[in-house]
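Budget justification note: compute hours in this period were largely spent on complex prediction jobs such as the one shown. Inputs:
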Amino acid sequence: MTRTSTLDPRSADASVDVTRVAVSTVIFTLRRLPGADAPRVALPLVRRTRDPHEGQWALPGGWLDVAEGLDAAASRTLAETTGLSPSYLEQLYAFGAVDRSPTRVVSIVYWALIRPDEASDDSVENVQWFDAASLPALAFDHNDIVEYALWRLRNKVGYSRIAHGLLADEFTLAELREVYESILDRRLDPANFRRQVENSGTLIPTDRFRTGSHRPARLYRYNQDVELADRGPLGVRQ
Amino acid sequence: MTRTSTLDPRSADASVDVTRVAVSTVIFTLRRLPGADAPRVALPLVRRTRDPHEGQWALPGGWLDVAEGLDAAASRTLAETTGLSPSYLEQLYAFGAVDRSPTRVVSIVYWALIRPDEASDDSVENVQWFDAASLPALAFDHNDIVEYALWRLRNKVGYSRIAHGLLADEFTLAELREVYESILDRRLDPANFRRQVENSGTLIPTDRFRTGSHRPARLYRYNQDVELADRGPLGVRQ
DNA sequence: CCAAAAGTGTTATGGCTACACCCATGC
DNA sequence: GCATGGGTGTAGCCATAACACTTTTGG
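Corresponding output:
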């Protein structure tokens, strides 16, 4: 492959009048704040160290490499900027307004879920976790993007089983219910929730129990035969 | 704005090692075939006149201009290649597999609906309407893309009111039901369909009736106050 | 024993489905 | 009149919601 340096789409030369393709990801997890009872939706942001919006917080991402697919680019840029590899990753939307950046950038945005234990806090430089409900002013149009991702998350939790992407392998029904309650921001009836999820066939009961408080709760595993979400005819393409 | 000709992303020079951004659209309409009872889902394809897959049928589209948003590019390329302007247009997915084209192309794909009366057949050169259920082998990964768009169409018709995008301003309940039946490929109970759609509050009854066969059927209009589909916090952005 | 969460049972409600039935028009 | 689609009524079914109730642990 020949590559002329001046044509490298990853160069930050603003005088070059081309459209560049970036890939960003909105990663959600649940965080239990010290004083709070219910966990909250949180996401990691990266402090920008370069000119457009330098110093402001932005979604993790990077330029699309000429020799990699979109999904691969999302995974790679995510790992490079935050060190995270999500349990669930799905394309969200392509943002391409002319004025969303000083230079012309089309961003293919992904959204992802990560288990709380995988969200290694206080590790990588320039990365910080924020409460999704109270974000600062982000770089570019990233506030809008997060808002849209949150909408998709709340929507999708209603008709698919993505909530499992926020839990460890084994979990109690109360923990699963807590995930739904945090995302939907309303209480669910424990009795009805149990029956719904039991009848869905997505859970496998184990012989183990979570002890420590009151009556022990049975631990469940996720039934891998049932997909997290119906993505239609799109498989692991890209 | 300065533009170096060799950097023009719209040039078809395959030796230039950059990622170019294209915009394509899957446009659906309903066509009543001569001998058939029920209308069928149909879409227009464009015969390729250039090298990659020359002579094969492909989705209408074109290169993204540096100074236009994604939605605008979809509308423009659609009008340029087919002369159509849809009643409903929504982003579908960004396709960016490395091997989907000889040169690296990321395609932002839209899907659209058009009313049968607007689908001016036999007009534009190199454009032909195909039955969505029996397509030939298309250029690039366009067969997969159409399959995904059909999946989205069938999904979305279940929880939104996009079916109106395939009808004229005034229509009978039987005509609206026929749209649903064609997309979902199954019969719906006329009585239950009537009640469902009446209770949804999306229809405004008029004083006019469709005559010509048997008992006249009341004509309805679409209630503009209710959106065709909930797109979440994304408005008319781009 | 008591508090609290785990887990079960029961009833009401509302939407959907199936289908019987009446209405109005063309022929 | 009669065939046909327009339009209404109704009973069964099933998922959900609300909530009373029992069970099992920690303290």
